[in-house]
Amino acid sequence: MPATVTAVHASATHSFSKLPATRIQLIEGQGVEGDAHCGVTVKHRSRVVVDPSQPNLRQVHLIHAELFDDVISAGFTVVPGELGENVTTSGLDLLALPVGTRLSMGEAVVVVTGLRNPCRQINDFQQGLLKQVVHTNTDGTVERLAGVMAVVSRGGLVRPGDAIGIELPPEPHFPLTRV
User: Fold this and answer.
1) What are phi and psi for residue 49, nearest 5 degrees?
2) Residue 171: CB partners within 8 Å, gap ≥ 6?
3) Is the pLDDT of residue 119 over 90?
4) How far lies 144's CA from each of 61, 116, 149, 178, in Å?
5) Fewer Cβ close by (within 10 Å): the C or N end of the chain?
6) Is-contact 109 102, C-beta < 8 A?
C-alpha cells in the first residue's frame, strides 16, 4: 500500500485535540499556518517554561493511522486529530524512520526530527490511553508510539489523499529519540 495522507488537522489554541481540515498550509521553518505550535522557537508550553528561545523541532506532528486501529482494538475510541496530530498517515511506518528523513506531501516537505513524547494529557482525554502509546519493555527501554515530529523544509498545501514520498538521509542512519 502506498504511503498517503489520510487526514489533516490544526488548532489555533493549545487544546489537546486538533480540528479536521480539508487542507493545511505548511510554512517553511515554522509549521502549520494558524496552529498554536507554529513558530521558529518552541511553542509547547512545558518547553517554553524551560527555555522559550530553543528551536521548534516539533513544528508538525504526524501519526500513523494504524495506531488508531491498535488503540481501538484495546477498547478505546479515538479518531484522527484527537491525539493532537497535524497529519495522519497510512501505509508508512513512521516510527521506523531515521532522524532526518524527508517526507514530501502535497506541495510541502517536512524533515523528521524525532518521536513525540506523549504526556499525561492523554489520560485526561481517555483514562488508560497513555499506556497504549508508551510502553516500557522488559529491558527497561521506553517505546513511544504516538507518532513523530518534524520541521517544515518546504512550505505548501497538504491535503487528505496526497501521496507521501520518502527520502532517507545519508548513512549512517540514527534512530528516532524523543524531541
Assistant:
1) -60, -40
2) none
3) no
4) 14, 7, 12, 8
5) N
6) yes
Question: How far is 90 from 163, CA to CA, in rounded Å?
Answer: 10
Q: Which cell is 168 given?
A: 532517507
Beta bridge partners of 55: 41
Percent of the chain with pLDDT over 70: 100
How far apart, in whole angstroms, are the C-alpha atoms of residue 86 and residue 77?
19
C-alpha cell at 151: 520541521
Domains in the chain, please, with CATH?
4-167 (2.40.33.20)
| Rounded Cα–Cα distance for residues 30 and 170 (Å) | 24
Calpha distance 19→6 (Å, rounded): 14
Give per-residue pLDDT as tens, 5-55: 999 999 999 988 999 999 999 999 999 999 999 999 998 878 888 888 999
What is the rounded CA–CA span in Å between residue 132 and residue 177? 18
